[in-house]
Amino acid sequence: MGLTNEHIKQRLTEKFGDQLINFEEPYGMLTFEAPRELNLKVLNFLYDDEELKFRFMTDLCAVHYPDNKGKELAVVYHLHNLVDNCRIRFKVFAPVEQPDVYTATGLFSAANWMERETYDFYGVNFVGHPNLKRILNVEEMDYFPLRKEFPLEDQSRVDKDDEMFGRG
Amino acid sequence: MSTENNNTQPQQNLAFPGHIEELPGGGIVLSKLDDVINWARSNSLWPLTFATSCCGIEYMSVAGAKYDFSRFGFEVARASPRQADVIIIAGTIVNKMAPVLKRLYDQMGDPKYVIAMGACAISGGPFFYNTYSVVKGADHVIPVDVYVAGCPPRPEALMHALITLQQKIKSGLTREQIRASND
After folding, report:
1. B151 in contact with A at a CB cutoff of 8 Å?
2. Structure pTM?
3. Residue A145 and residue A122: Cα distance in Å, rounded?
4. Sequence ranges of the domains in chain B
């Protein structure tokens, strides 16, 4: 493999300096955190750089950390360099009161539906998205169901007994 | 398999409705037109190709060569609701799917019948019933004639449901028939 995590990290640091933080390698996959204003710049750099060539977007999703004040919502990007078969992950954080993140649809067409899904479930507002509306849930839904303030299950049900389902 | 069962219930239902009036040199079949129509309809029920989750796999198995529901007159699954007589709700109905299911049901020509297959179609399912997205039973959306328990039901269970539906039609007791006779 021509591309090592150390090298990617070095290239990123040369370009962005200390703006990229929290470099980790869980299960060997380079992971870092970027300021949310820089998400497109980082994506563009990873895409355009002649060595890095991260030109395939594997996944785009969000995570809700309710205890992470001011940085409640994380948007996670997974990219794949198909030439060197190397993957990378990075996160940007946004406050839940104003979760604006620039859209990646200009760079990756695949981001269109993934951002709609992320908006649908977490309410991340992708600024500049051409068609930011719900994709999986009914359009009338007025909340974002995967945020942590919503319990995993509807607690108001009384007609179904958990014991019958082996978890009483 | 008890022989008693074989001799009583099914024979009654498999027989052509009516009786033969013996006359010199032959006989005449006497029957009620309604019974004959129900008999004919029950033996030619074309299901709609409709499956929303894992029950669909069992449904496909029943449609396939091993179980082969064409033996009982469920001849071909139709891809258009306008050509279908019975809709087998094979899987979870989510809120977004509910209007689609209603529309498919409305598009089916009368008489039409509904089978709710598996726990999800009956009550929202053993796993998903307590979520924001699942309809807690397809009978909130369209009326159901026969329920099949299971998660998913075995192919034999679905076959039993199909035959139960046939018997129900022959006795004129499906929702569709009751509604028509009240009009």
Report:
1. no
2. 0.79
3. 7
4. 46-169
A137–chain B Cβ distance below 8 A for any pair: yes
Q: How confident is the model at residue A63 (pLDDT cuts 50, 70, 90)?
A: very high
Chain A residues whose CB is inside 8 A of the B132 CB are 137, 141, 145, 150, 154
CB contact under 8 A, B130 and A154: yes
Element (H, E) at A118: helix A111-122
Q: How confident is the model at residue B162 (pLDDT cuts 50, 70, 90)?
A: very high
The Cα–Cα gap between A51 and A141 comes to 44
Structure token digits, residue A1: 């493999």
Query: What CATH code would you report for A5-104?
Result: 3.30.460.80
pLDDT digits (tens, 9 = 90+) for A122-155: 999 999 999 999 999 998 888 898 998 887 766 6
Task: Look at A154 and B131 and tell me if their CB atoms are within 8 Å.
Answer: yes
Give the CATH class of B46-169: alpha beta
Question: ipTM strictly over 0.85?
Answer: no
User: What is the per-residue pLDDT across B40-84, written as a single tens digit (0 to 9) for each?
Assistant: 888 889 999 899 989 999 999 999 999 999 998 888 888 999 999
User: Do B130 and A157 make contact, defined as CB atoms within 8 angstroms?
Assistant: yes
Interface mutation target, options A135, A143, A148, A160, chain B, most CBs of B under 10 Å: A160
- How far apart (Å, rounded) are the C-alpha atoms in residues A83 and A131? 31
Give the one of A138, A154, A160 whose C-beta lies nearest to B95's C-beta.
Answer: A138
Helix (H, G, I), strand (E, B) or coil at A86: strand
